[in-house]
Amino acid sequence: MTKIIFMGTPAFAATVLKGILADSHYEVLAVVTQPDRAVGRKKVIQTTPVKEVALAYDLPVYQPEKLSGSSEMEAIMSLGADGIVTAAFGQFLPTRLLHSVDFAVNVHASLLPKYRGGAPIHYALINGDERAGVTIMEMVKEMDAGDMIAADSIAIEETDNVGTLFEKLAVVGRDLLLSSLPAYLAGNLRPVAQDPSQVTFSPNIQPEEEVLDWSKTARQLFNQVRGMYPWPVAHTYWKGERFKIQEAVAVEGEGPAGQVISRNKKELIVATGQGALSLLTVQPAGKPKMTVADFLNGAGRDLAVGDRFGE
Q: What mean pLDDT comes out for the span 161-188?
């Protein structure tokens, strides 16, 4: 039985962890995840999805703020693991830690060398890619730069957003890891180096990238909205305050970019640089997320054709 230390944080990683725990070929000695964080306006302490799985299986949990030089890393190295599996962990692994085990592999949610970094699923949607995938790669002390062990992909559907694609790719990653790891550990699956000329990056989304530029095409804005939902959520401005748009669809229409060109009790259509965007789910400042119909019948009842967003 191969003894593993698992490192991961979000629901994507939790799905991978559950798959490993269900496979009798592996024993998970411990789980390493990011520290619990205070979230929301009420600053409620929230455990990570990976920690929740670990606790359900009575696994030891380590949550160092930073692995390098920590007492947690020393404790992890003393466990006698054969290898490390990571999935969306959120920290670099020190070289000393990597050298302390026989193998260290990562489940990365992109088709490397495309989209190295922390937001590959967001970028696949924002850029309008037709497919998204997962790569199993060897860990090195450089972001997502290790040799590739295996890869698989799925089509991106029109209805996909970050949340749905995360769920789908978590299953792809789980199954790909479990199908490729035995052959890799047996020396029958030879890793392939990444082509440096094809490397692109997907850094974490910055606040300024969340703002909708109405001069872009309707298709670009549709991709931006779904590429940021359910987090961090794209937004524009209305009455000088932030106005979040969680869901929208591209439709026909024309007018000055950002201008409301159609409005009734259930529909709100805004012109873009090319085409128009029909808003479906929104969140005005200080209000909860709501359907556009609820917005138009409430906080947005005075919104009229000719009004502009983004000002």
A: 98
First to last CA, the chain: 61
Is 110 annotated among the ligand-binding residues?
Answer: yes
Domains recognised in the chain with CATH numbers: 2-198 (3.40.50.170), 207-296 (3.10.25.10)
The whole-number average pLDDT for the span 24-30 is: 98
DSSP-derived secondary structure letter, 55: H
pTM above 0.90, yes or no: yes
Nearest partner of 103 among 93, 112, 113, judged by Cα: 93
* Contact between residue 249 and residue 280 where contact means Cβ atoms under 8 Å apart: yes
111 annotated to bind ligand? yes
Map residue 120 onto helix, strand or coil.
helix
Rounded-to-integer distance, Cα 7 and Cα 199, Å = 25
Tell me if 296 is assigned to a ligand binding site. no
Determine whether the annotation assigns residue 21 to a binding site.
no
Across all residues in the chain, what is the average pLDDT?
Answer: 96
Q: Which pLDDT does position 138 carry in this prediction?
A: 98
The span from the CA of 153 to the CA of 173, in Å, is 9
